[in-house]
Write a structure and sequence with these properties.
- This protein is α/β, with parallel strands linked by helices.
- About 30% of the residues lie in helices and about 25% in strands.
- The chain contains 9 helices and 10 strands.
- The longest helix has 16 residues.
- It is globular, with a radius of gyration of 19 Å.
- The two termini are about 25 Å apart.
- It comes from Flavobacterium arundinis.
Length: about 290
């Protein structure tokens, strides 16, 4: 009880865990990797995991924190989103209700995780019996497409639900309860994939029936370092939610992170946080 429990959903993009797991290792009490035992995506497509990946896990798990949780997460009668919500709830049960339940995806690189974990520890009263359900949110920089000498990224911070005291997931990680916003930020390797890998993601993730894949990929194919300033509307659902892109130089994730830090793009204004949290407090005051 009262632990910092971190879980990852592991599938076709498992290799990205090598960027995502090390930054959260020291400040997690236990780390769970949820993998479909039949190696099926939520859409029923098969995938393979190189045995060398598990060797890598053993090599970095110096404190024996990592738990491999295999179960049947693909159910043919369910939609991809229903499979996602089901898996998240099953993983949360495995992680243990009564702890802070953190769920991250393989492509979310949480580089200031210590401050986030410290914040959760300061809010342990939410883990007591009878406490209202809450979800603790952070912000992320969405990486859109790797180009020469760097990456095109979405020119706005997006919120994302990271932790909860009770996993009442409704859509993805969204519990439809009070959100509490923190100033922690992750880099999200969202759409910045090789083309074939991106198409695989779009066909197998929880939003696969919500998007116009062909129209989205046409714009993704067309945008580059030379023309991104002349284009707009890049989100996969409502395009104008991601209105514009910017360019950040860097040949590796670590270089990109350092350049983002120097640019000031990883700062969340204090007054913005205050307004967001005050609004959520009033919204759920009597619920």
């Amino acid at each position: 009880m009262n632990k910092i429990q971190t879980g990852f959903l592991v599938s076709y993009d498992y290799k990205l865990i090598q960027n995502a797991l090390p930054p959260i290792y020291a400040d997690s009490d236990t780390i769970f990797l949820a993998i479909d035992k039949n190696r099926k995506t939520w859409n029923g497509e098969g995938f393979e995991i190189d045995p060398a990946f598990f060797d890598w896990i053993k090599s970095i798990d110096t404190d024996n924190k990592v738990v491999i949780y295999e179960d049947e997460f693909y159910i043919p009668e369910l939609t991809t989103m229903q499979c996602e919500v089901r898996e998240r709830k099953m993983l949360a049960e495995k992680m243990g209700i009564g702890n802070w339940l953190i769920q991250l995806d393989s492509d979310e690189y949480f580089y200031d995780f210590k401050s986030f974990a410290d914040y959760l520890k300061s809010k342990s009263h939410f883990l007591k019996k009878g406490a209202k359900n809450v979800q603790i949110c952070s912000f992320k920089v969405n990486l859109y497409k790797y180009v020469d000498e760097g990456v095109l990224y979405v020119d706005k911070l997006d919120k994302f639900m990271v932790a909860t005291n009770f996993p009442g997931y409704k859509v993805g990680r969204h519990c439809k309860c009070r959100s509490i916003y923190t100033n922690s930020i992750a880099l999200h390797d969202c759409l910045s994939r090789e083309r074939g890998e991106l198409v695989q993601k779009l066909e197998n993730w929880g939003h696969n029936t919500d998007i116009d894949k062909d129209a989205f990929m046409q714009k993704w194919d067309d945008v580059n370092k030379s023309n991104y300033k002349q284009m707009e509307g890049f989100f996969y659902l409502n395009p104008m939610h991601w209105k514009t892109l910017e360019f950040m130089p860097g040949k590796t994730i670590q270089e990109l992170l350092e350049n983002f830090k120097r640019s000031g793009k990883l700062n969340v204004p204090s007054f913005f946080l205050f307004k967001k949290n005050l609004g959520q407090w009033f919204k759920f005051l009597f619920k």
